[in-house]
Design brief:
heterodimer; A: mainly beta; 7-stranded mixed sheet; 4-stranded antiparallel sheet; 50% strand; globular; B: mainly beta
């Protein structure tokens, strides 16, 4: 199985700040099959990024994704109040797996 | 607009089989992947498995011996069966649509299943 390790576990930031979330894969993952999701309390996850760097429909451009080898990054350029949530990466190649999540909380 | 709705018992006894159904509206299950994902209380997401429109399936290796996902194209539904459940199977269970390119792009609202005697 491909293990995805997200860091940090919790990110404490203020509105307007930049957030950088990491997802490292235990083995090669095609960038075509790496996604990021946002989940707020009591809600189902929402797709943000697919193919490592493509924004899903309706996702603001302050969200961006990038890839370098087995390292994937989600960047939120200027945090809005509604962005404080838990973020998960997922690989959807063979035998899908999720990272354990990064909580972005208000500092 | 594609919508998914989970249904099934909210309480299952230990050692019994958990059974859930997902009803899809606004799309045909004769396309895409149709998947089950769960989330134990206060924890992260765990992929359970999917059924492809062709009827082929793939399961999380850690659950494979206990999981069956099937589809009823006439009802536009797909189902999950998880056998020999324990308290560790207590979770929010989501059904969702998976795609080859976009990941999981449509989610149901989720249904809570508690395993307890």
């Amino acid at each position: 199985d491909t293990v995805l390790t997200q860091s940090p576990g919790t990110l404490s930031l203020s509105p307007g700040e930049r957030g950088t979330l990491s997802c490292r894969a235990s083995q090669s993952v095609s960038s075509s099959y790496l996604a990021w999701y946002q989940q707020k309390p009591g809600q189902a996850p929402r797709l943000l990024i697919y193919g490592a760097s493509s924004r899903a429909t309706g996702i603001p451009d302050r969200f961006s994704g990038s890839a370098s080898g087995t390292d994937f990054t989600l960047t939120i350029t200027r945090l809005e109040p509604e962005d404080f949530a838990v973020y998960y990466c997922q690989q959807y190649g063979r035998a899908w797996t999720f990272g354990q999540g990064t909580k972005v909380e208000i500092k | 607009q594609v919508q998914l709705q989970e249904s099934g018992p909210g309480l299952v006894r230990p050692s019994e089989t958990l059974s859930l159904t997902c009803t899809v509206s606004g799309d045909s299950i004769r396309t895409y992947y149709w998947t089950w994902i769960r989330q134990p209380p206060g924890k992260g997401l765990e992929w359970i498995g999917y059924i492809y429109y062709s009827g082929s399936t793939d399961y999380n290796p850690s659950l494979k011996s206990r999981v069956t996902i099937s589809a009823d194209t006439s009802m536009n539904q797909f189902s999950l069966k998880l056998s020999s459940v324990t308290a560790a199977d207590t979770a929010m269970y989501y059904c969702a649509r998976g795609t080859y390119y976009y990941g999981v792009d449509v989610w149901g609202q989720g249904t809570t299943v508690t395993v307890s005697s």
